[in-house]
C-alpha cells in the first residue's frame, strides 16, 4: 500500500518557528537605542517644584516603590550654562510670579539655538488662565502646559503626552529611564504598529483564506505580521523597563505568539462576524492581532497578570471594530496609481504615493511610518 501524505500548506512550519526567526535577526540596534542615555533639564527658580517634578518623572505610577535614579539636570535660571546641551529643556515657571523677564531671555536664547523647550507654568489652587497669559506676554513657546507639578493625574494626562510628542525619536530610552512616560509610550508603540500592519495588509491586495486558520491572510502575510508583533513585544518590554534579553520574552509570551496561536484565537472570535473575506476584513484582522498582542503585554505590565480568554474576546472584538474603521478610511483615501517618487537617504527611502509619505526599509523593502526609527517588520534601524 502506498502511503499518501496529507497535503500541507507551505510555510506553516515557518510560523511555528517565528521566535527563532526573530532571534536570528540582530536585535542589538533596538536594544542599544533603548539603553541610550537621554538628557533632560528642568530649569526654574527656587521653590517652583523642580525636585517634585523630577521625582514624579523617575517614579513608576503603577508600582510606586520602583524608582529609577536617572540623572536630571536641575538648575535655576541664573545658573544655566551658556552651552546647555540636552535633549529637552523643561522651563518651570511660577505662574504666580509678576516678573518673567529672566525666563523670556532664556527662552529666546534657546529658541534661537534650536533647543527643544517645554514651558511649564506651575500653578497651585485655582487657575486664572487669562491672567497668566496676560502677565506672560512675550513668553511664548511652541510647546507649553499649565498645571500643578504635584498632580499625578494632570502630569499623566497632559504633561506626558506633550513630552512624548516632542521626542518622537527618543521614546524607547525615555520610557526605559523615566517610568512616568511608560504607559503613554506603550500605547503609542501599539498604535503605530497596529496601523503599520494594517496598511501593510491593505497594500498587499485581496485576501486569501488559509484553511488551517480560516482567516483571510496568506502565509507570507502571517509571517511578516507575526514578526512585526514579535518586535513590538520586545520594544514594549524595553520601554516598560523590563529585561533586554530576548529569551525572557520568549519564555513569557512564546505560547501566545508562537505556533500561530494568536491567529487561531482571532479566527475563533471573529467567525461569523465576517460575511465575505475581502480587503476590509483582511486589514481589520491584521490590526486586531497586533492590537491584542500589545494589550497582552501592556496589561501584564499594569496588573502583573496575563489576560484570560474572556478578556481576549473583548480585546479582539474591539480591535476588529477599530481595524474595520481604519480599513474603510484607507479604502476611501486610495487614489489612482501614481508613479512612486523616491529620495535616497543613508539607510532608507522616503516614498511619496497616494497614501502619503512612508519609509521603505532597505532590508525587507516594506513600508513604515515616516517617523519610524526601526523597521516594524525586520528590526533594522532606519537612519
Taking the sheet with the most strands, its summary is: 5 strands, parallel
Oligomeric state, counting identical vs distinct chains: single chain
What's the arrangement of strands in the largest beta sheet? 2-1-3-4-5
Number of helices: 14
**pLDDT averaged residue by residue:** 76
Amount of helix: 40-55%
| Spans where pLDDT lies below 50 across 5 or more residues | 1-16, 209-214, 269-277, 335-355
User: Any idea what the radius of gyration is?
Assistant: 24 Å
| End-to-end C-alpha gap | 60 Å
- Domain count: 3
Which term fits the overall shape? Answer: elongated
Q: Tally of extended strands? A: 9
Please indicate the percent range of residues in DSSP E strands (runs of 2 or more).
5-15%
Order of helices and strands: HHHEHEEHEHEHHHHHHHHEEEE
Give an overview in words.
- The strands form 2 sheets. The chain has a 5-stranded parallel beta sheet, with helices on both faces. Strands 6-7-8-9 form a 4-stranded antiparallel beta sheet, with helices on one face.
- It is elongated.
- α8 (171-177) runs antiparallel to α9, α8 packs across α10 (219-239) and α13 crosses α14.
- A hairpin with a 4-residue loop joins β6 and β7 (349-353).
- It has 14 helices and 9 strands.
- It is α/β, with parallel strands linked by helices.
Give the secondary structure arrangement, pairings included.
Layout: H1 12-16, H2 18-24, H3 28-34, E1 40-44, H4 50-58, E2 73-75, E3 88-94, H5 101-112, E4 117-122, H6 129-135, E5 143-147, H7 152-166, H8 171-177, H9 182-203, H10 219-239, H11 246-257, H12 261-270, H13 279-303, H14 309-333, E6 341-344, E7 349-353, E8 356-360, E9 367-368
Parallel strand pairs: 1-2, 1-3, 3-4, 4-5
Antiparallel strand pairs: 6-7, 7-8, 8-9
